Amino acid sequence: MGIIDAFSNFLERLGGKTIEVAEKPLTRLPEGKSVSERLKILKELQKEIETEQEETRREKELETVIEWRKQEISEPFSERLAGAMLRYFRRPVEGLTKSLKGLDEDLYRASILMPKDRYVALMLAVSIFSGIFLVLVAYLLYQPIEISLLVGFLGFIGGFFYMRYYPKMVWKRRVAEVERALPYALRHMAALLSAGVGISEALLSVAKADYGVISEEFDLVVRDMKTGASFEDALSRFDEKLGSENVSRVVKQILRAVKFGGDLSDILYKLAEDFSFEYRMKLVEYVQKVNGVAFIYMFLTIVMPTMFIVGILAGSVMAQALIIPIETLALVMLMAFPAISLIIINMIKKAEPR
User: Fold this and answer.
1) Above 80 in pLDDT, residue 30?
2) SS3 track for 257-283
3) What is the number of other CB atoms lying within 10 angstroms of the CB of residue 172?
């Protein structure tokens, strides 16, 4: 009786699910009809089933398209732009990719997770947009078409070289951030080591902490060790990737202490103090340099443009006509002096202690 009751309960649940899933009541063939009428009803039923199947297929296609568009929109604009360039200009991109040596290593050091060919496609896209933008700017400033095209060509070349050296700039910026946070990370590791924690656990703790780029790099070191690399190989890759003298000192001291023994926590404390002292000395020198450059910056960005305008006006009054076309004057004031200002700011920024 128990088996029969279980089987009947199963049939009841199955019938309930069938009723829930069914969207329309099943059309039954009427009794007592002729064969032609029954065939006609069957054809109508077949058309309804085909219509429902077509609607279901269209809904699935629409869902697929919507999902694809969501994934496409979620991608960064640079990825989509590179993909479009690679799709329409694959041969030029592949030829240029082969001629650019060392780009893959620069991308690796900068932690730019983009294939080399896609990055080259992005380089071309940025160069083209830079050229077109400068052509439009020169044309709106009423420059001759030859000058506008020349400015656009220079913009294309400038955009291309900027994108080529952009990974190196990112790498140097990451190295600077690592060196800036290195004393804090070393103190963190030294405190854990003095408390009896292992070196691997100390690296993992720094990787989970919020020290910026150095936490990201330590996380990669931990991942390398989890994937089978030895401790020495993982740290050597970290040192090779960054190419920093301070990082190299730290890696050598850690490997020497692990290999030959020694109080690693005390070593890391001393390294942290040395780096902090060096940074303070560099900061003092930087402040002195900035004080000397400030006067030059004010002269080139404030006094010199004023003297230039006064000289143009005085010369124009004496000649009773503008000695420089208004378009050229606008180009100088809108581009030349701001460019000088940006160059000086970039020099000051590069002299900032790392």
Assistant:
1) no
2) HHHHCCCHHHHHHHHHHHHHHHHHHHH
3) 16
- Cα–Cα distance, 44 to 50 (Å, whole number): 10
Q: How far apart are CA 153 and CA 148, in angstroms?
A: 9
DSSP state of 351: T
Give the C-alpha separation, 16 to 100, whole Å: 67
Confidence of residue 133 (pLDDT cuts 50, 70, 90): very high
Whose CA is closest to 121, among 159, 77, 83, 169?
83
Residue 148 near residue 253, CB atoms below 8 Å: no
Q: Same domain, yes or no, for 84 and 62?
A: no
pLDDT in tens, 74-113: 567 777 778 788 888 888 888 888 888 888 888 888 888 8
Binned at pLDDT 50, 70 and 90, residue 297 comes out as confident
The residue to which tokens 């690592």 are assigned: 178
Domain count, the chain: 2
User: In the block, which residue shows the tokens 């329309």?
Assistant: 24
Which of residues 300 and 157 earns the better pLDDT score?
157
Query: Domain span at residue 9?
Result: 2-74
Q: What is the pLDDT of residue 23?
A: 46
Query: What's the rounded Cα separation, in Å, for the pair 154 and 151?
Result: 5
User: H/E element holding 333?
Assistant: none
Picking from 172, 187, 209, the residue at the C-terminal end of a domain is 172
Cα 191 from Cα 220, distance rounded (Å):
22
Identify whether residues 49 and 135 lie together within a single domain. no
Inform me whether the pLDDT recorded for 121 exceeds 50: yes
Q: Which two tokens stand for residue 229?
A: 């690399």
Residue 110 in domain = yes
Locus of tokens 């000397």: 292
Task: State both tokens at 236.
Answer: 């050597």
Does residue 271 register a pLDDT over 50? yes
In a domain, 58, yes or no: yes
